[in-house]
Amino acid sequence: MSEKVEKSLSPVPSHEGSKEGQVLEAQHDAVFGEITDEGPNYRSVRWLGTAVLMMKTQIGLGVLSIPVAFNHLGIVPGVIVLMAIAGITTWSDYIIGVFKLRHREVYGIDDAGELILGRAGRIFFGGAFVLWWVFVAGSGMLGLSIGLNAVSDHAVCTAVYVAIAAILACILGSIQTLGRLSWLAWIGLISILTSILIVTIAVGVQDRPSAAPKDAVWVPDYKIVGNPSFTDAITAVCTIVFAYAGTPAFFSIAAEMREPRHFNRSLYLCQSVVTIFYLVIGIVMYYYCGSYVSSPALGSAGPVVKKVSYGFALPGLLVSTLLFIHITGKYVFVRILQGSRHLAANTFTHWAVWLGCTVSTAIVAYVIASAIPVFSDLVSLVGALLGTPMCFQPMGGMWLYDNWHKGQDGRRTSKWIFMVCWCVFVILAGCFLMIAGTYGSVVTIIKSYAAAGGSAAWSCADNSV
């Protein structure tokens, strides 16, 4: 391995006690170029901060729908599906860390796509990455508007709340480095966990969920094994995939780690906490609420608890949204300035391009969120069509790209054969979920239009009820 490549991912020197780890001398990075005191330190995120950033890209909007997914599947199939998705995505995330160490120049999933599939792979995965995270950012803005409506009793037009969410997320998302955002990730993670735990405890101590009938003795109607239609089942599975769909962002997070060799340490902490939390929330809330669990789940314990939980959740929803804007804007920013001295230097061009990328991302996400009827169903469609193939198929291809030659060299060990079969399974499973999930989302959109025609563009209606 060349000396330049080895140096490109070596730890970035820092001042003793420095908050972000400012560099003492020029340090070459294979993605960001020369990192110096004259620009932002893009290699400053420590392993614990990395784990928190990972958790925050995972725990957000998706966790609020897990109890509803369990309602369709039943507790036992729901737990099995969740553990299977957790296992596959953890392996996918692990491959990202391994691939990044072997190919230091990789910044995003499109770089990996180009190595595997050529220019077509770069175009597809790059476009899918941007489109996916822009839609998720728009979904985050709507989530914030729901929270603001809930705590204020719809004091202002919903369209105004969406605009406020977009402005706040854009301003904070324009902070230059993930190292400087990691403290916000801590706040966001603690706030969203607190809000969901409040609701979980509340539904356990109350005699019935908020939506249950009040004129009869309440008996939880949870199902050990559900009997859903194919559309409901595949939608529930894709909902769980969505809860683990932070995977594409792990490329960007790994690129800004101070010690990339600690990636696995951060990953295992993240996936362990996320999976345990998802299991507890999904099982407990569905057990106590049954078919009357709300979506999002924060409304399951009545109006008072709903206000309190959304009050705690607002910082977490804001941090999720600003991270989506930051990661998307950073991706476009790096692609525009990569190879230029402006990428890692505080020049006018640097700031003009950086702010242009984050503001443009926020504006597009805001317009999509506000202008498109049945937006939540559209996010599900984009998630199935673009989000799923970024969490499964590329990672199987990445392992095969790095290891296929071993079989050609006559080193077909049992482990190699098993891993080839595993990668083929992951790729096929991803393709099935993409096709079936897209079909389920299209059916859901058709039903939504038939029932209500979707919501109006820039609607003032209260979206928290």
What does this molecule look like?
- With 465 residues, the protein is mainly α.
- The protein has a single domain (45-451), classed as Orthogonal Bundle (Hydantoin permease).
- The chain contains 16 helices and two strands.
- Strands 1-2 form a two-stranded antiparallel ribbon.
- A hairpin with a 3-residue loop joins strand 1 (27-29) and strand 2.
- Helix 3 (66-73) runs antiparallel to helix 9 and helix 6 crosses helix 7 (158-173).
- The protein is globular.
- The termini are far apart.
- The relative contact order is 0.17.
- Residues 1-24 have low confidence and may be disordered.
- Residues 47-440 form the Amino acid transporter transmembrane domain.
- Residues 1-22 are annotated as: Disordered.
Q: Which short descriptors sum up this protein?
A:
465 residues, mainly alpha, Hydantoin permease, 16 helices, 2 strands, disordered N terminus, membrane, transmembrane
Shape: globular
Q: Note the beta-strand portion.
A: under 5%
N-to-C CA distance: 58 Å
CATH class: Mainly Alpha
CATH topology: Hydantoin permease
Rg (C-alpha, Å): 22 Å
Secondary structure class reads mainly alpha
Residue windows where pLDDT falls under 50 for at least 5 positions: 1-24
What is the helix content?
55-70%
Domain Amino acid transporter transmembrane: 47-440
Protein name: Amino acid transporter transmembrane domain-containing protein
InterPro entries: AA_transpt_TM (IPR013057)
Subcellular location: Membrane
